[in-house]
Amino acid sequence: MKLSTYFSPIKIQTYRLEQLILREHQHLRYLSFLRQSQYWPKNRLVSFVSFRLKSLISHAYETVPYYRRVFDSQGLDVRDLRLPADIQKIPFLSSDDIRSSGKQLISRSFPLNVLQAKPTSGSTGKPRILYQTRDFKLWKRAFVRRQYEWLGYSLGDRVAVLWGSEFYFRMKNFRDKLENVLLNHVELNTFRITEDMIRSYAERLANFHPQFIESYMSAIYLLAKTVRRHGIAGIHPKAIMTTSEILFPKIRKFIEDTFECPVFDRYGANEVDGISLECPGGAGMHINLEGNFLEFVGRNGPVKENEMGEIVITNLYNYGMPLIRYRIGDFASYSNQTCQCGKTLPVMGNLHGRIHDFVVSSDGSLLDPYFFVKVISPTLVQEFKIDQESAGEVTILLKTDNFEHDSQQILEKILWLDPGMKVRFKRLDSWPISASGKYRFVESKAKIDWF
Ligand SMILES: [Zn+2]
User: Fold this and answer.
1) pLDDT tens by residue, 320-373
2) Which of 41, 63, 221, 417 has the lowest tally of Cβ within 10 angstroms?
3) How far is the CA of 57 from the centre of ligand 1 (A)?
4) What's this model's pTM, rounded to 2 decimal places?
5) CA distances for 437 relative to 57, 242, 254, 273, 387, angstroms
6) Which domains are assigned to the chain?
């Protein structure tokens, strides 16, 4: 490459934009590292993770009262742990543990005022406060930026984000808004979404011409329906990233056909964002392994390749409040498949759901929500929802032109799987999204005892 090409005015402008605009520009150092590490040989990646685990677990034992107590009660000597294999000797951390332990989970090395408190409700809806370090936020930013780059993003590309969080938008200050303007980013709040709101968003995006859209699945689906209904032209991004909800195959196709671009599903969580993203290379979702060590666990320990298990996560960078072997409540499988893209990061399959997305059968076992997607699939584009008040009983809400026929077909398939299940059907009028803008196609209030 000629020197004059490298130092072209556009490159220099881009560099200065990064340096001047991004308050947390230190994340670019991390990004630079991550751009290389994603192609490392697997054994080098494993050594790196082993080193990070050892460092985190030693730190947790030395400075976090909760882990000191747990490790001592188990007779665990952190110096003897051979990682990552021996991580299974450490007990799980549950959402209830986080709530009940309170500040016992915070490292004594970090005064509270240097940590960012992040109130969340978790998957069970019960409030907790997570404390995160600035370094954790920088790594998170680098991981998310790397994910965008997998889809072809360059700094300055127009990005639209449809996001349903009142808290998130309330926390935005002038500088955040200025950064969005300078980076060509538009953020739209889909909390308490209405039809008029989504139409005005569609018209705004038609003028903005986003090159990338990141959205809750339900928000981009509603946007797609609005675009079709009102014939709104001009929204043709290079890629769409969906997040936070289960992405059904038919919904994915509907969105892809509407916007004439591929959809990639991303998996993140309040506790640790940017866990994995579907790769254009086709192998599945690449895990950001340098930041998150993932285990897939069933009732009898680790599951085999392509078997569904609960995701147990250890974040490698939040030294302020370490989450070690955290049962996040989501279910998926992993794969040893190599990807055409050349990245050596491990691969997981799409999410099967959160623990409360599972239907509890009449004998107390858990039914995979994807079973219901397949059963109801013929009517899927016309929307459905499953409510479960107690084990062995479900109410299925259907929006279909052929209610009697479709209900009967679905009933037969469910009874074939679980003859003891009591099934009620109700008509559904509109796409059932919650106030947060998220759509949960199964909502079970039945008591679930997974482990
Ligand atoms: Zn790949």
Assistant:
1) 999 999 998 888 999 999 999 999 999 998 787 776 677 888 888 778 777 777
2) 41
3) 30
4) 0.82
5) 37, 13, 19, 19, 18
6) 358-444 (3.30.300.30)
